[in-house]
Amino acid sequence: MSMHFAAPIVTDVAPAQDDCVILQLSRLPDILTVQVPDSSDFAANWTVYAILGSDGEEPEWEGDEVDTGAWDDAEDEMEKLFDIEVQLPKEALQPYLGREVELRYKFRDESSMEPYSQALRLRVET
């Protein structure tokens, strides 16, 4: 389910040109950090993870899930986290060498709703 979540931000790389980020595998760390832009549209009890592929419903690759909130004993409820980051291993980009792939983040919640973000196009080079 596509919602209007902003595209992910890949840290440690040059900014996008023509809406496409060029990634040179030889210069990347083993794990890329992907920022999930802060939004009031997701809940503290969801999880989020990076996905690759042109279809957000059926991604070609899925990363590890990260919680969007943490339990606050004082308030006795979930508190939403900010500056959430998910990881994209360099090895997950290897199959896309010499072509473009779409990077998104996707949420999972208790009701099995799985909204995902707008895509950031990545061009994977050697």
Explain this structure:
The protein is mainly β and 126 residues long. It has a single domain, classed as Immunoglobulin-like. It has one helix and eleven strands, in the order E-E-E-E-E-E-E-E-E-H-E-E. Strands 2, 4, 5, 6, 10 and 11 form a six-stranded mixed sheet that branches. A three-stranded antiparallel sheet has the order 1-3-9. A two-stranded antiparallel ribbon has the order 7-8. The model has no long low-confidence stretch (mean pLDDT 92).
Summarize the helices and strands and which ones pair or pack.
Blueprint: E1 9-10, E2 20-24, E3 31-36, E4 47-52, E5 61-62, E6 66-67, E7 69-72, E8 77-80, E9 84-89, H1 90-93, E10 100-108, E11 120-125
Parallel strand pairs: 2-11
Antiparallel strand pairs: 1-3, 3-9, 4-5, 4-6, 4-10, 7-8, 10-11
Task: Provide tags for this entry.
single chain, 126 residues, mainly beta, Immunoglobulin-like, 3-stranded antiparallel β-sheet, 1 helix, 41% strand
Brief digest:
The chain has 126 residues and is mainly beta. It contains one helix and eleven strands. The chain has one domain (9-125): Immunoglobulin-like.
Highest-level CATH class? Mainly Beta
Kindly state the percentage of residues in helix. Answer: under 10%
The overall number of domains is 1
Low-confidence stretches: none
Shape: elongated
> What order do the SSEs take from the amino end to the carboxyl end, as H and E?
EEEEEEEEEHEE
Strand % is 35-45%
- Helix/strand-derived category reads mainly beta
- Main sheet makeup: 6 strands, mixed
**Reported CATH architecture:** Sandwich
CATH topology type? Immunoglobulin-like
Count, helices: 1
Rg over alpha carbons:
15 Å
N-to-C CA distance: 33 Å
Number of strands: 11
Mean pLDDT: 92
